[in-house]
Structures are given as structure tokens and as C-alpha cells.
Amino acid sequence: MKTTWVLVADEAIARILAYGKSKTLEPVEELTDPDAHANSAEMRRDAVGRRAAGGNPQAGATASASEDPLLQHAEVFSKRVADVLGKAQQQGRMDSLILVAPPRFLGLLRKALPRNAADIVQAELDKDFVHFTNDDIQARLRQLEHLK
């Protein structure tokens, strides 16, 4: 029987589950990003920038206001998760892949997935199931006919 991996993730947690011979979702691995839990005040503390000589704050070099530190951390985390999936596919640990994540993180995952893992994506679901039990996830995926 083919093994399908189900990635259930958000910008802080990625749960990898396997669906195969047992016909139930079994945990494979869980990845977390501790930086995703930092509050915005902690993130801004390091973004003050340098000040020009003479103390003129207007002349200093600062980070662009459009740079979102939380988005940057999410991008790094998505690449880490994508690397794990790519290596697992190379090792023959999965035959197909289902991605379940909120829309923004799902988009980051799509960009980060190596071709070998992207080629075996069976389905994508733009939902946040990361805190659901394995049984709840399995029931929802069966309802949508993603798990047979």
C-alpha cells in the first residue's frame, strides 16, 4: 500500500502524519519555530537601526518598514519544513503528500517545496488544523475524499 504523508502546519508548528497500512494517521515528526511565538515588542527591539554621527535620528539607516519580521520567520520555517519533506521523498518514505495550512503559510510552502516533493502533492487544503487531533484531521480529510 502507498504511504501518504499529511503535513498539518501553521507558521509555528508543523505536524507530519503518515497514512498507510494501518489506515490511521500516525505521527512521523513535529517541527516547531520558537521565534514564531515571540511577541512583536521583542521582534521590534532589534530593529531600531543605526544612528548617524551627531545623533540625528533622521539620517540613520534603518530597516524598511515593509519588512515584516514575522513573515521572514515564517518563510524560514516554511523552507525548513519543505527541506524535511524533500529529503523524506528522496528516501522513499512517502508516495504522496497532502498539505494542510492556513493560506499565507500554504503559499510559502508551495514556493519552498523542492520539485521532487511538489510533484507528489495529492491535495492542498487552506485550513488551520494544526491543533486538531489526528482522528479529527483524518475524519475531515475523508469527508473531502483526500484520504481513501
Structure description:
The protein is an alpha/beta fold and 148 residues long. It has one domain (4-36, 68-143): eRF1 domain 2 (Nucleotidyltransferase, domain 5, 2-Layer Sandwich), CATH 3.30.420.60. The chain has 5 helices and 5 strands, in the order βββααβααβα. It has a 5-stranded mixed sheet with strand order 3-2-1-4-5, with helices on both faces. α2 crosses α3. The relative contact order is 0.21.
Top keywords for this entry?
single chain, 148 residues, alpha/beta, Nucleotidyltransferase, domain 5, five-stranded mixed sheet, 5 helices, 35% helix, Host_attachment_protein, Protein required for attachment to host cells
What percentage of residues falls in helices of 4 or more residues?
25-40%
> Proportion of β residues?
15-25%
Give the strand order, joined by hyphens, for the main sheet.
Answer: 3-2-1-4-5
Strand count: 5
How many distinct helices?
5
- Determine the CATH topology: Nucleotidyltransferase, domain 5
- How many structural domains? 1
